[in-house]
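Good morning,

Attaching, inline, the backbone tokens for the sequence recovery test we're adding to the shared suite. The designed sequence is right after.
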């Protein structure tokens, strides 16, 4: 039976790595901005990434795009310290 797993990382340690990158939305969309600079990181609209309120139909595409912000690097993530969580079935 398939099971869902979540991996939790120390975000500060992950972002401090030399080859880390981040995006302001889904990497599958052409309008995405991504990179490894402080300027790109500071331009991420976290109010949409962690959006938890209702929104209008007109705002749906923008909100969903930013909710899919990604960390497309580093090439390998540190496994220590991390914890593995499995949702109960």
């Amino acid at each position: 039976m398939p099971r869902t797993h979540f991996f939790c990382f120390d975000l500060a340690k992950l972002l401090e790595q030399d080859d880390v990158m981040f995006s302001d939305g889904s990497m599958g969309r052409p309008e995405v901005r991504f990179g490894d600079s402080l300027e790109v990181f500071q331009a991420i609209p976290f109010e949409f990434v962690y959006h938890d309120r209702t929104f209008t139909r007109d705002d749906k595409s923008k909100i969903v795009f930013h909710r899919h912000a990604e960390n497309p690097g580093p090439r390998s993530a540190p496994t220590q310290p991390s914890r593995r969580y499995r949702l109960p079935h």
